[in-house]
Amino acid sequence: MSMTVKPYYFSDKLSNFDYLIPKSIEEAVDLLQKYKGSAKLMAGGTNIIPALRLKIFPVYPEKIINLKGIKELKYIKEESGFLKIGALTTFSEILENKIVDSTYKALTEAALTSAPPQHRNLMTIGGEVCKEPYSWYMWNPNPIARELISDPSYIANEGMNQYLSIFGGSDMGYAVNISNIAVALSALNAKIVTTQRTIPIEEFYQDKMGVTSNTILAEGEIVKEIQIPKPDKKIKQAFMRISFRKFIDESVVSSAICANMSSDTIEDVRIFLGSVDPKPIRATQAENFLKGKKLLLTLLKKHVKNLFKEQHL
Ligand SMILES: Cc1cc2nc3c(=O)[nH]c(=O)nc-3n(C[C@H](O)[C@H](O)[C@H](O)COP(=O)(O)OP(=O)(O)OC[C@H]3O[C@@H](n4cnc5c(N)ncnc54)[C@H](O)[C@@H]3O)c2cc1C
Fold first, then answer.
1. CB of 47 sitting under 6 A from ligand 1
2. Which class is 73-134+176-310 in CATH?
3. Which tens digit of pLDDT belongs to each residue from 276-302?
4. Is 146 helix (H, G, I), strand (E, B) or coil?
5. Domain locations in the chain as residue ranges
6. Which of 94, 159, 198, 245 has the fewest other C-beta atoms within 10 Å?
7. pTM value?
8. Residue 241 CB–ligand 1 contact under 6 Å
9. Please, what is the Cα angle at 138 between 20 and 107, to 5 degrees?
């Protein structure tokens, strides 16, 4: 019997591309228009560089447009009842900001769990909400694993399925949106401002998973700003995730909650789950169950801790 054994191969080399550094949003939009179909944007580069090294894109981009030269996209300010964060603001800048720290707890908790401090100096909020979908198979340097993506039934039923979508597959073999920040922003009811329009975050992601992205961004559209409505003082927020390691690990599941509390009764609540579907998914049944109920936070925390212990997490 003869058997062909494929060699293990890690493509760690970037192929050639032209590197362009626009100084304004207009210049970046013009470049995207000029090199339509052959250019990709880069912000912190922490997701797109590994994606380029692993050659996950069906067509390797000829031009990389680095947005980091656009200083006007770097800010955090309060204006007209919104917290406005420029797309090039880094996670470190978000975590150092006193307004975010005091009022947008779900966002800080999500940013803290997203990567170690060194990487937070690079990662931007714009790049994070637009980052490529994740599947253990697609992002695996071993081509044998990557070939298996053509058989989603194997992946879902028998394979390394702890990181995959549990609410249905897609043409990318059950890939998921792993952005912790996107989950927190969804619970906080944020909006994404682009060079063309303002999109509520619940409409920003689509179920149909593309190889490079599952956002509804059109070609040539750039995210400029994230807007978060200032939460009422009665709103309690939290973000939590389960992962095998503290950092440099995708969430197996993440969740963010914003609950409008009157005394200890939940009047209204938004709950979102991440890393289990191609987009942050709203837990409407849980929301309906909680509405009007009394919540004893100390008891809840104890219950969740026990649950984590039981699962050995
Ligand atoms: C060592 C390491 C550890 C990590 N750990 C975790 C982790 O534990 N959990 C986790 O969830 N993630 C983790 N990540 C992934 C990380 O969260 C993302 O890589 C990062 O937030 C992406 O931001 P960026 O600015 O680097 O985006 P980039 O890599 O520059 O871009 C990502 C994508 O967004 C597009 N893009 C960027 N900016 C814009 C814009 N303004 N408008 C439109 N499109 C845009 C790019 O074209 C690209 O497709 C880790 C990454 C690294 C390198």
1. yes
2. alpha beta
3. 988 999 999 999 999 998 877 666 666
4. helix
5. 73-134+176-310
6. 245
7. 0.91
8. no
9. 70
